[in-house]
Design goal:
This protein has 81 residues and is mainly α. The chain contains four helices and two strands. The chain is elongated and about 55 Å long.
């Protein structure tokens, strides 16, 4: 509880963007645990394709070689028809 009326009128914007970082540095036991399952990006319930811009801009996506090898397999399979 605030000791003075001046402190009672302070809102969260007074602390700026530094507050959450300082708070977690002061109370390391409050840092959330890493999630048990990996994040799978979805749009309207459908998984985002691995050749999309999302995976091109994020490290955790498949490497460029993996994407290109998948494309080569698809084009080879089309040629067999």
């Amino acid at each position: 509880f605030p000791k003075t009326t001046r402190q009672a009128n302070i809102d969260g914007a007074y602390f700026g963007t530094t507050f959450p970082h300082l708070y977690l540095m002061t109370h390391p036991d409050m840092v959330p645990k890493k999630p048990a399952q990996a994040y799978v990006p979805r749009v309207y319930g459908f998984k985002v394709h691995q050749s999309s811009l999302y995976y091109r801009n994020h490290e955790e996506g498949p490497s460029k070689n993996q994407i290109e090898s998948g494309r080569n397999r698809k084009t080879r399979a089309r040629g067999r028809r």
